[in-house]
């Protein structure tokens, strides 16, 4: 789908459908909606007065213009309560409108920028949210469907025109819409990687995809194989990988616009392309969901794509350790001791606590850059899902300013985080009798003890960890720009974090 921005008045658009909006409790629509209402002889006021349309968030009402204006149909989308209005409501309302347009079978429509006028939002940011919501609402994962799904309705949208009244807002709206397009494309790619079955997304396939993306976006790319990992001393990653016939990959991407060796921001994503649990095997019920155990890696790959496309001025490194975790005669076993890149040893109590092992090596590798900050994302613990559900990722950090930056970015992206402690008192739960630490910490505070283990490999840099076990994929739709399945959680947050970095 193509997003175009032009100067004009929405009521003059010659098209199949125009989209305007309405807040709750408004009786006299103003701005563009007011102008359309006037042209339609007060039909929108009638809808409101009769109580047939209340402006509730994401509700829509359809009117036929009957030659009163050049457009054939008018769609009014509710923006909800004015006092609760923000950028995410723009994302949602835009998505609701785009879905309705699709269901109507139109291939193009024109819309105003929700929130830029009476909503009081920054026009560029509102346009970005509009583009994100519109594009993400159309996401579907259909690669493996050879027959048309009954649940599919409508047609593919081809073009959305954003119509701006003031000449001086055209440029900021255009910039915002372009950024929204690039970010949405990155989120869609991340969703595809997560939704992709493990037999279509092995570590080497993910590395090949990353290589293709890097080439297209001017990023430096490298993928380490088992021999490199062994000689570097990545014993924890190798331990997890040794049970699978699929070779592991350690993907390294670099965005370096100035070509200087300045301290980078390092983004790290857990890339378990399938987590069976290994010898400590998981119950078979629901095990198929573990194809998505590389959602952290997908978020980092998506973020790197958008960071490059947006030409952000910072040096950013993306690291994705990718492997399967399977039981076999060559698999690592409970009781095994592995030695990570930093030289620290870990006793394996559960082979299902594999994410922290591969991240230990990735964090150790990140420290070599002496980064400004390292941020890892991982579907790390069921305990984090128990604590926060699908609404927020657990945030853990050894650096308050970095945690604050992440909280700010999370708010703008509406990818929620909630900070959890990594107090020293928890560390005794992962004390081992035979190695420097063990990879599980008992029943209590499972998300925290996992983060504590990671912190042992990130002690020489500002570091934050996002446990996205709950937020990476959803079974019910929550907002209209996020259908069931992979959410792409983290891409928007990471891009925002790097964009805001001063
Ligand atoms: N990938 C899982 C965590 C997970 C669970 C992600 C559910 C998404 C949904 C992780 O590797 C794992 O198995 N964690 C174990 C740790 C335990 C063995 C200490 C868990 O949470 O049960
Ligand atoms: Mn596991
Ligand atoms: Zn896992």
Taking the alpha carbons of the first and last residues, their distance comes to 33 Å
Global mean pLDDT: 98
Helix content: 25-40%
What is the CATH topology of the largest domain? Aminopeptidase
* Count of DSSP-assigned helices: 14
Structural class: alpha/beta
Which kinds of small molecule does this entry bind, naming each only once? Answer: ligand BES, manganese (II) ion, zinc ion
The CATH architecture designation of the largest domain is 3-Layer(aba) Sandwich
Cα gyration radius (Å)? 24 Å
Per DSSP E runs of 2 or more residues, the count of β-strands stands at 20
Largest sheet: 9 strands, mixed
Low-confidence runs of at least 5 consecutive residues:
none
CATH class of the largest domain: Alpha Beta
Molecular structure report:
The protein has 502 residues and is an alpha/beta fold. The chain folds into two domains: 2-164, Leucine Aminopeptidase, subunit E, domain 1 (3-Layer(aba) Sandwich); 184-500, Zn peptidases (Aminopeptidase). The protein has helices at 31-39, 43-49, 87-104, 123-137, 167-195, 203-217, 226-232, 235-241, 295-309, 355-367, 382-388, 400-413, 446-455, 491-500, and strands at residues 2-7, 17-23, 60-64, 73-80, 108-111, 159-164, 220-224, 249-255, 265-269, 271-275, 316-325, 337-339, 345-347, 373-378, 393-397, 417-419, 437-438, 463-467, 473-474, 485-486. Manganese (II) ion (MN) binds at residues 275, 277, 352, 354. Ligand BES binds next to helix 11.
Write the SSE topology.
Elements: E1 2-7, E2 17-23, H1 31-39, H2 43-49, E3 60-64, E4 73-80, H3 87-104, E5 108-111, H4 123-137, E6 159-164, H5 167-195, H6 203-217, E7 220-224, H7 226-232, H8 235-241, E8 249-255, E9 265-269, E10 271-275, H9 295-309, E11 316-325, E12 337-339, E13 345-347, H10 355-367, E14 373-378, H11 382-388, E15 393-397, H12 400-413, E16 417-419, E17 437-438, H13 446-455, E18 463-467, E19 473-474, E20 485-486, H14 491-500
Parallel strand pairs: 1-6, 2-4, 2-5, 5-6, 9-11, 9-14, 10-11, 13-17, 14-18, 15-16
Antiparallel strand pairs: 3-4, 7-8, 8-11, 12-13, 15-18, 19-20
Helix pairs in contact: 3-4, 4-5, 5-9, 6-9, 8-10, 9-14, 10-13, 12-14
């Amino acid at each position: 789908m193509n997003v175009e921005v032009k100067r004009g008045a929405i009521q003059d658009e010659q098209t199949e459908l125009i989209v305007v909006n309405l807040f709750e409790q408004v009786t006299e629509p103003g701005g563009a909606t007011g102008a359309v209402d006037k042209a339609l002889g007060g039909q929108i006021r009638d809808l409101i007065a009769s109580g047939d349309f209340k402006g509730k968030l994401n509700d829509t009402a359809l009117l036929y213009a009957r030659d009163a204006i050049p457009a054939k149909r008018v769609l009014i989308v509710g923006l909800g309560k004015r006092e609760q209005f923000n950028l995410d409501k723009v994302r949602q309302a835009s998505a609701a409108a785009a879905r309705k347009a699709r269901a109507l079978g139109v291939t193009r429509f024109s819309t105003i920028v929700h929130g830029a006028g009476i909503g009081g939002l920054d026009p560029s940011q509102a346009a970005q949210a509009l583009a994100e919501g519109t594009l993400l609402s159309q996401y579907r994962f259909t690669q493996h469907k050879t027959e048309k799904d009954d649940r599919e309705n409508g047609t593919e949208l081809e073009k959305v025109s954003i119509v701006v009244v003031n000449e001086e807002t055209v440029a900021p709206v255009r910039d915002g819409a372009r950024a929204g397009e690039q970010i949405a494309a990155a989120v869609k790619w991340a969703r595809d990687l997560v939704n992709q079955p493990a037999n279509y997304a092995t570590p080497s396939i993910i590395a090949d995809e990353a290589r293709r993306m890097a080439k297209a976006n001017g990023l430096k790319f490298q993928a380490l194989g088992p021999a490199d990992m062994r000689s570097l001393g990545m014993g924890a990653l190798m331990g997890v990988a040794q049970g699978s016939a699929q070779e592991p990959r350690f993907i390294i991407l670099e965005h370096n616009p100035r070509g200087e060796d300045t301290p980078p921001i390092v983004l790290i994503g857990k890339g378990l392309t399938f987590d069976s649990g290994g010898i400590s095997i998981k119950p078979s019920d629901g095990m198929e969901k573990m194809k998505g155990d590389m959602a952290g890696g997908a978020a980092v790959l998506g973020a790197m794509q958008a960071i490059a496309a947006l030409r952000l001025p910072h040096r950013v490194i993306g690291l994705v350790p990718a492997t399967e975790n399977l039981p076999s005669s060559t698999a690592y076993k409970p009781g095994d001791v592995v030695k990570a890149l930093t030289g620290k040893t870990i006793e394996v109590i559960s082979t299902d606590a594999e994410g922290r092992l591969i991240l230990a090596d990735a964090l150790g590798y990140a420290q070599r850059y002496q980064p400004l900050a390292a941020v890892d994302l991982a579907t790390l613990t069921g305990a984090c899902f128990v604590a926060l559900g699908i609404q927020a990722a657990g945030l853990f950090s050894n650096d308050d300013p970095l945690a604050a930056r992440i909280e700010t970015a999370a708010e703008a992206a509406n990818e929620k985080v909630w900070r959890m402690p990594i107090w020293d008192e928890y560390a005794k739960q992962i004390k081992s009798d035979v190695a420097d630490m063990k990879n599980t910490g008992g029943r209590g505070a499972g998300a925290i003890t996992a983060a504590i283990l990671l912190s042992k490999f990130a002690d020489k840099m500002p570091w934050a960890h996002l446990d996205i076990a709950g937020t990476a994929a959803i079974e019910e739709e929550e907002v209209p720009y996020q259908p069931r399945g992979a959410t792409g959680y983290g891409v928007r947050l990471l891009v925002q974090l790097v964009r805001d970095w001063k």
